[in-house]
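Quick one: co-fold with zinc ion.
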Amino acid sequence: MTAQLRAFPVLVLIALAWIAIPSGASANHVGPYGNGVPYKWQNLQSLGGSISYSLCPLGEPYAQDWRWGIENWDSYLSTRMDFNEFTCGQSVRTYVTWESADECGLTVFGKPATACWTATDATWQPQGGYFLLDEAEIPFDVSYKAQSLSNRTQLSAHEWGHNLSLDHHPYDNSCSLPGVMAYVNAQPPCFYVPAGSEIQTVECVVYDLLP
Ligand SMILES: [Zn+2]
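Sure, here it is.
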């Protein structure tokens, strides 16, 4: 009896989640801020810091969509944070590229994850209670190419949000809360630039930059 009582809400949640999922885009990732522990860049821990990124391979036609997702964050964060693009092939902090070996895998519903965020070099800081990021990667699955422009921009902004230590809006689809950190992406997305609440979380909660 107790097992049945426990199982019921889980089944309902799975059913609701299944209904809410449109075909195609979703994104997964590991351990950003939220229920997990935060990952922080050293250079963003004071006002005016920057991190470098590259879009590869050189001449990649979808690089413009990746760039928009990242630079939308940059413009909203004004002079408080800068994300600077370097030419593909240079040593940078965040590598944005295509999957090389299905790094993103499948979502829990068995569909290819369209993109993901991975810390490729991070060191646990026991006193601060966070991982100090030295290098990260954002791979995209080929299914990204079939998305609309607004979806492609949102997906890039979403993964960059993970790069800034944001987790998903819990139990959310991309229309019920403003912003780019929904777990499920609608077709087309309701939002493809970061919301004020997301900017504020990065500035004031993750990085403690503003009073
Ligand atoms: Zn995500």
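If it helps, Residues 1-35 have pLDDT under 50 and may be disordered.
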